[in-house]
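User: quick one, fold this
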Amino acid sequence: MTRDTGRRRGLDEQAVLLVAGLADLAVSTLDSAVGTVRGLLRRSDAAELAAQAEQDLMARGRLALDRYAAVPPAHLEILARHALARRAADDD
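Assistant:
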């Protein structure tokens, strides 16, 4: 019984330490992000920077949609094209 209780306490302690570490990481990342946003807001070219960021995000979105929304050609269609290309090469 003592071993099970000790093991359970060790697992609980590990879980608490992991959660505390993740929370600390999240807070420091958020603090860094807020500092970066404050720095950007102080810039004189903030409007131009925001417009460029919007264009970049739109381009990234377009690329992501093209990458994941495009339907690849059917497998049999690809095989048929290869067969036609071989026949054309053999005829020459």
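User: anything notable?
Assistant: The longest helix spans residues 2-41.
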